[in-house]
Structure formats: C-alpha cells, structure tokens
TrEMBL record:
GO BP term, pick one: carboxylic acid metabolic process
Annotated family: Belongs to the group II decarboxylase family.
Chain positions with N6-(pyridoxal phosphate)lysine modification: 315
GO molecular function annotation: carboxy-lyase activity; pyridoxal phosphate binding
Cofactor: pyridoxal 5'-phosphate
Lineage, top ranks: Eukaryota, Viridiplantae, Streptophyta, Embryophyta, Tracheophyta
Stored Pfam families: Pyridoxal_deC
Organism: Daucus carota subsp. sativus
Reaction it catalyzes: L-serine + H(+) = ethanolamine + CO2
SUPFAM superfamilies in the cross-refs: PLP-dependent transferases
Protein name as catalogued: Uncharacterized protein
Keywords of the record: Decarboxylase, Lyase, Pyridoxal phosphate
Length: 484
C-alpha cells in the first residue's frame, strides 16, 4: 500500500502539479480550534434560602427557549470509531420528530396548512439548490430550479390576471419579503410617495416604512378589521400634493379581514388621485390564494390599477418551509434592478441567495391540486370556520367571523397553558383559530370540548369572569356579564 507522500502523489496523479511555496505550511492551522466557553449572560444568578445557587433567565418576551436548547458538543476523538455520536444524534432527532407530531396535532392558531406529503421530493435533499439573482435570467450557478420557479410564477400571474410578458416576480423567503419588495417597488415608482396602511396591517409593512424611511399614515379600521375608507379619504385629502402608496390587506393577521380593494380605488379617485398618482400593494400573505375562489370577495386582479401582490407559500398553499410569491408589473422592475457581474444575472430581489427547494415544493403542490383543488379546500375551510363559530356561540363564548374569512376570533382563554397547548395566537382579550385545510371537524370538536370543559372550571365560582370583547369584536359578538 502506498503510504509515502510520493506514493500518494503518484496515486492521485499529482506529480505534475506546481509545488507549494516553501513558506506554505499545510499543517499550519490553528492548534486548538475550540473557541473558549462563554459565560451565559442570559441567565441571572439567584441564591436560594438554603444557599443553593439557582440560575434563572430573565424572561422578557415569549418563552425561555434557551432553557431547553440542545447544546452543540464537540465530538470525542474516537467518536467516528464507536458511532456513539451518530447514535446520540439519531435519538435526539427521533425524539424531536415525536414532539413535532404531537405539536402538529394541537396546532390551531397559525395559518399554516400542515396537510401535505412531499415524500417524492426527498431525493432532492442532497442538492444545494439556490436561485440567487433574477428568476428569468440564468446565473452562472447551475444548481438552480428556475424552470420550476418560472412555472409557479406563471400560475400565479394567471390567477391574478397578468399576461406572461407583462409580469415580473420571484419566489421569496416569506410573505414579509413580498411586502418589503412590494413597498420598495411602490417607493421606486413614487420616491416622494406617502405610505398608507391600516392599523390592523401586519408589522412587515411598518417595518418597510422604517427601513425605507418613508412618510407614513396609519389608517383606522372598522370593527371587522377592514380599512376604514372614510378615514383613508380624510388622510388622503390632507396630502394631495404627494403620491399615495397603499397597502391593501387580503386578510389581516388577527381578524382575517379583507380590505375592499374596489372601495380603496374608488376612495383614491374621489380624493383626486388618478392612476398615475398611486401605487397599490396587495398583502395577500394570508388569504391571497383563498380569495380568488370566494364568490363575493373583492377580486384581486392586475386588470385593476394595482402594482403588486404577494402571498405566503407556507400558509394556505402548504409548503413545509417558509416561502412566498411576489408578482408585480414588469414595467416597474427596470428601475429597481441592477446587473451583477459575478452572478452574470440581474438582481431586483431583496435577498441574495434564494431557496431553490421552495419553488419545487410549490410547483409540486400546485400541480397536484390545481385551481380546482384549491377551490375545494377553500370551501371546506370556510365551512369548518362557520362550524367553529356556531359551536362557540352556542356555548355562549364571544366570537366573530368575517364573511370572507376562515379566521375565527373569540375571547382569549383564561389559562395560558391551554393557549400554549393549542398554539393560539392572542392579542389583548382575543384569540383566534385560523381554519386551514388540515383542520378537521373532529379536531375542532376536540378543541371545543376541552375549551368548554375548562371554562366551566375557570369561571365556576365567579372569582374570574370571561373577558369582555365588545371593543374588539363589537357588542353583538360579546357574551360577557355586561353584554349577554
Ligand atoms: C397579513 C399578513 N401579512 C404578512 C405576513 C407575513 O408573512 P410571513 O410570516 O410569511 O413573513 C403575515 C403573517 O402572518 C400576515 O398575516
């Protein structure tokens, strides 16, 4: 067996390779690559009465993730031989998988469709697929999935009625990125424009306003959560000298309210803003893929004077990783894009590297379900949402469901443990369940039975009372002591 350097060089046919410079020491790496352990300043020290030192982490917001973190430990020198590390990691992953199954079973509060099977795509896990740059201009990184990405974009452009040669878009990392892009396009079209968004708007729009240092007007909402067009008009009339950039919600985060796009356009026109003086971005992160299939919903269409639409791919569509779709008019994009020589592509996106797996997941699910499949799922979600609303109301629980929505908003459960178990999103006195395709009547029945049973205990002897939700949901939807 060849063990000498010469022998190895001969085996690898390296004899003709230029020698390394004499002062190059190939073993000259840092001796001990382990960085020193850092003191964990996240934990405070608390001396108990018995003198025992107990570490506590100050909880600022949310839960204390670091108390349950899985430490990364350094492999022992002989781990490779014993396989102990592999076995340890396999057991951690198996336990994690089990906990995911459990958490998935009790998931109601976030608008994520967890009903999917992408087993066929497992074979692609071995590839580092990256669509960095423009979806329509191939870069010199060959391991990409642009062919899937453009297919998906075409599908959405057709849904929102924009011709293939008139649209530009890309698959984003999430709905937030779509919003950041949509507002950026609006600002590039109207650099001195004022951004208008309702107070029930997702925080990503407020983030965009801060990032781009835009002048900003917050518009009131109705009890339903929809933008109040009377207030919008009043605010537009105060700034007639500057163009308007408006965010229209196709489903608000908390109440699932759908802004009336047609009324927003009418309000703009009545306030003296012609098509060339406003830019509308539609935030369809939540219901962007549901509303096209609901008869009475205001139609989101590029036949109307809108500039962009975005949607999240991991919500109603049901992608297992966060992603989204952003579509805008091609004419707006040239101002925003620049050539990047080292990519040999153009860049008009927000991020650099882009997840190349996501387009394949989207392509796969769109192909399987098609427009008709999504329509069926929308119908089921709306039906189940009505079922939940009716059962809550029957049980005397304050509840509201917007007509075009599958977000059922109701009084916040008294017990945080219950909230955590069912992963309900809460704000003030209200909580919500977003009925997605994976949420069945059986699951809702389980949830209802547990909630009704717990309420009987929480409010049994009058120490606690169910919260008043009149200011959030309206008097007619509140069943507290005062309003029932
Ligand atoms: C209305 C709305 N817009 C934007 C977003 C952000 O989407 P993402 O979580 O995909 O970034 C959300 C998230 O829930 C949302 O509800």
């Amino acid at each position: 067996m060849a063990t000498s350097v010469e022998g190895i060089a001969h085996e690898l046919n390296l004899e003709n390779v230029d020698p390394l410079p004499e002062d190059f020491d190939p073993t000259g790496v840092i001796k001990d690559p382990l960085p020193p352990l850092v003191n964990d300043s996240r934990v405070g020290v608390n001396v108990e009465g018995n003198g025992e030192v107990k570490k506590e982490r100050e909880i600022v917001l949310g839960r204390n993730v670091h108390t349950m973190c899985l430490e990364v430990t350094e492999p022992e020198a002989d781990d490779e031989v014993t396989g102990e590390r592999e076995a340890y990691m396999a057991s951690v992953l198996a336990r994690y998988r089990k906990s995911l199954l459990e958490r998935t079973k009790h998931h109601l509060g976030y608008p994520y469709n967890l009903d999917f099977d992408y087993g066929a795509l497992g074979q692609l896990q071995h590839f580092s697929i990256n669509n960095l740059g423009d979806p329509f201009i191939e870069s010199n990184y060959g391991v990409h999935s642009r062919q899937f990405e453009v297919g998906v974009l075409d599908w959405f452009a057709r849904l929102w009625e924009l011709e293939k040669n008139e649209y530009w878009g890309y698959i984003t990392n999430c709905g937030t990125e779509g919003n950041l892009h949509g507002i950026l396009v609006g600002r590039e079209v109207f650099p001195d424009g004022i951004l208008y968004a309702s107070c029930d708007t997702h925080y990503s729009i407020f983030k965009a306003a801060r990032m781009y240092r835009m002048e900003f007007e917050k518009v009131n909402t109705l009890t339903s959560g929809e933008i109040d067009c009377k207030d919008l008009k009043a605010k537009l009339l105060c700034h007639q000298d500057k163009p308007a950039i408006i965010n229209v919600n196709i489903g608000t985060t908390v109440k699932g309210a759908v802004d009336d796009l047609d009324l927003v356009i009418k309000t703009l026109k009545e306030s003296g803003f012609n098509d060339d003086r406003f830019y509308i971005h539609c935030d369809g992160a939540l219901f962007g893929l549901m509303m096209p299939f609901v008869k009475r919903a205001p139609k989101v269409s590029f036949k109307k004077p809108i500039g962009s639409v975005s949607v999240s791919g991991h919500k109603f569509v049901g992608c297992p990783m966060p992603c989204g779709v952003q579509i805008t008019r091609l004419e707006h994009i040239s101002a925003l894009s620049s050539n990047v020589e080292y990519l040999a592509s153009r860049d008009a996106t927000i991020m650099g590297s882009r997840n190349g797996h996501a387009p394949i997941f989207l392509w796969y699910t769109l192909n399987r379900k098609g427009y008709r499949g999504f329509q069926k799922e929308v119908k089921k979600c709306l039906k189940n949402a009505h079922y939940l609303k009716d059962r809550l109301r029957d049980a005397g629980i304050g509840v509201m469901l917007n007509e075009l929505s599958s977000t059922v908003v109701f009084e916040r459960p008294h017990d945080e443990e219950f909230v955590r178990k069912w992963q309900l999103a809460c704000q003030g006195n209200i909580a919500h369940v977003v009925v997605m395709p994976n949420i069945t009547v059986e699951k809702l029945d389980k949830f209802l039975a547990e909630l009704i049973g717990k309420r009987a205990v929480w409010y049994k002897n009058g120490t606690f009372q169910s919260p008043c939700v009149a200011s959030e949901l309206g008097n007619e939807n509140c069943f507290c002591g005062l309003h029932k």
